Amino acid sequence: MRNLTVLSGGMGGARFLQGLLHGIERGLLPGVERDATVTVVANTADDLWVHGLKVCPDLDTVMYTLGDGIDAERGWGRRDETWSVKEDLAAYGVEPSWFGLGDRDIATHLVRTQMLDAGYALSEVTAALCRRWQPGVRLLPMTDDRVETHVAIADADSPSGRRVVHFQEYWVRLRAAVPAEAVVFVGLDDATPAPGVIDAITDAELVVLPPSNPVVSIGTILGVPRVREALVATSAPVVGLSPIVGGTHVRGMAEQMLNAIEVEVSAAGVGLHYGSRADGGVLDGWLVDETDRDQVDRVVAGGLPCRAVPLMMTDVGATAAMAAAAVELVAR
Ligand code: GDP
Ligand code: CA
């Protein structure tokens, strides 16, 4: 295999990609050539405009992680970051004060915003930013169009009893500490896949759904018109890895998001939510963590080949082993 495509969110997807690239370089993935190329289709529904700047959290997390510029402890933003601009914005009392942009990070958003203003598409801008970072993958936004995930939360002060906030406000300001009553993907139904996205799925020899958020990362990519159809139709096997381990997410807020769309918060629940390609879904195989071993039979009974293996991305070696297990599960 020489052509792999991965649908990715931010941190979970980026960490998986690190392990996948490590596995490819070392020849650890059965049937995958060492010179194989990886195309990443990244979620852009978390994107937002802040202080006049276009910020693309998931694209940047993938780019910085694979380009060795990430603050690994925080999991987002730049290493050796400083916060002078943020402090001075706060001194002006400018909102949103809850969304922190570091000084180094701001350079990325300035370049991106200028290029968008000059008429370049987000996919072109992303390619330009990647010329600096050399992430070792072809990084594509899922769409060049504006798509935003919004979350409905309870609000006693509102006449409807509800208030809708941008996903970033739910996650960063509210820390996902209040229940999400609904998730709305503004603009998704009318979005066009970015150039190369459909071909990346159609021409791939393997497609991987890493342990990214099934609702606000993978769910949005699958919601871009023609993407799900491309997955259903591709001759490549499609394999996924569970972000849910032991009945909750490893990091983040997948549990809250799954509750909002009424999908069971379990490894089996997410696998069966994606569904078997043999049965109208998008997967040919599903990996669950070894602690969820007891759920394998249920997934298999749902028509989806499944195995339990260690799924904790503790280091690049462990993550490469996850990628190898994913390839093995669906290798013909
Ligand atoms: P985000 O955009 O930064 O939220 O990142 P993603 O959507 O790509 O990934 C978030 C998901 O990664 C969460 O649902 C986590 O449960 C999952 N995740 C993070 N670390 C691990 C890990 O070590 N193992 C597994 N199986 N899932 C993980
Ligand atoms: Ca994200």
Folded structure, characterized:
The chain has helices spanning 11-25, 57-66, 84-92, 103-117, 122-133, 167-173, 197-202, 218-223, 227-233, 254-260, 267-274, 296-301, 316-330; strands spanning 3-8, 37-42, 48-50, 53-55, 138-141, 148-154, 162-166, 180-186, 206-209, 238-241, 244-245, 248-249, 285-289, 306-309. It is of the alpha/beta class and 332 residues long. It has one domain (1-146, 191-246, 265-332). The strands form four sheets. The protein has a seven-stranded parallel beta sheet with strand order 5-2-1-9-10-13-14, with helices on both faces. It has a three-stranded antiparallel beta sheet with strand order 7-6-8. A two-stranded antiparallel sheet has the order 3-4. The model has no long low-confidence stretch (mean pLDDT 97). Residues 8-13, 58, 61, 211-213, 217, 242-243, 245, 249-252, 254, 311-313 line the site of guanosine-5'-diphosphate. Residues 8-13, 58, 61, 211-213, 217, 242-243, 245, 249-252, 254, 311-313 line the site of guanosine-5'-diphosphate (GDP).
Beta strands, count:
14
The average pLDDT score comes to 97
Q: Structurally, how many domains make up the residues?
A: 1
The global form is globular
Tell me the structural class.
alpha/beta
